[in-house]
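Take one protein record:
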Amino acid sequence: MKIIMHVHASWQKLVAFFWLQSQQQRIIRLGLLLLIGGLLLHTLLTNTPSSIEAPAPLRVVQLTSVNALTTDDTAIFVGTVRAAQESDMQFEIGGRVTTVPISVGQYVTAGTIIAAVENSAQRAAVLQAEGAYEAAKANAAVSELSVSDAERGVTTAEQNVLTVLQSTHTTTNVQVRSVLDQFFSNGDSLSPSLSINGYGRAVSINENRKALHYSLIELEKTVNNLEQGNDFESTKALALQNISDALSLTDALTVAVSKASASDTLNGQSVTAYIPALANVRNTLVAQRNAVDNAFTTLATATAALEKARLAATGVQTPSIASASLTQALGVLRAAQSQLEKTIVRAPFSGSVDVLRVRIGEYIQPNVPVALITGSSGLEISLYVGDTDATQFYVGQSVLIEGTKEGRVKSISSAPDPLTLKREVVIITDDTMLASGDTVQVTPYEPATTTATLRVPLETLKLDDTNASLLTVNSEGTTIALPVTLGQIQGNWVVITDGITATSTFIRDVRGIAVGQKVQVNQ
């Protein structure tokens, strides 16, 4: 009641302040009230921030230690024992079983026939292919003999060319110096002089003889240095040029002699008496030119025959008909042998026959397992783990099997199976009490040593060009570096040789965290 009376009294005072006055006073007081209210509203708006920025959340980290990681690392995994070598064999083609020469439990060596289906057609095809291959080899041998004959033909032709070229020099030289030089004074010199009337051609005849002086000397040097197997073409051109020059000189002298009168003499004889000798020179030179052409034709023919023989023979560097035929026949034989092998199942390695699912007389379909062979190279354990658990293993690591038996990690798959998203870890053991098919427990461990091994996962390390460190958190929530010395890398783990103890605490995963960064520790 008192409150109501107090509110009523306050209301009466407010009304009296504004309305129980003159109109001018009411306007002034109302204006003052509006001005004060506007100032208060402006002050309130200018002093109130438009938006309040919330502080960024701190990165939450987890601290751990080597001891804690070792405790976490003692997980137990379940694996299956299997033979290190095991093969479930099957036929590639179907058929009626005709041979099963082995029995269950029998020890067989690699290559032993386990079973075979009816294969008379395949054996006949192999026999036919073998015959074709032998025929191809015989043809190749004949072709190789042809090459030898052709090579001997080329050798003979080259020797003949060499002889003919040497004979050309001798023949041309003899005919020029013993017969033609009778018509010159100083014939075999650099200034020969025609001794008979040249009837206007004496100068050209002298020049012709002078040219022969040089060419005969050059031909002699070339022929004397010529050996079998040389390139004879340049020597051939020089020899034919010598013969051509000698023929030209002979023809010019024949014309001059035929024009001589009965009274013209040479060496006490009538000049015209030399006509038969000049004719004989010409015939000799022409015959020598033909001999050169024939020798080179024979050489070209022998060379072509050799190339043809090589194309038809094996044992040469270039492809040949015989080698192609031999290769083709060998390919047919290999294909026939492959088809025959598809009708036979052989042991891929030495071991014992654990399972035999086929008997003689049965018809078996292709790709149906018929036998299981286990090798004699020991047992291994296969277990499948996720990516996180796979970091606890590395190749060569020791493990405990069933808590007491020792084993060693042989391999870890490089990528998870796309269907199961798990990696296979294969463990080998020398324990003889295990049997194929057993299910066992596997525990990773480090054998006892004089100095405890400190290992940390790779994701706990901060690495730069020269240094490595772990990160820990100080009392102010800031990350600081713990420099460490690294040892051997073991899978996704690394050995720490110096810098921390087994109880030193550090951040479990430093990826994306920098030194000096504010973080929040997850307790």
Summary: The longest helix spans residues 120-178. The chain is about 40% helix and 25% strand. The CA atoms of residues 160 and 295 lie 6 Å apart.
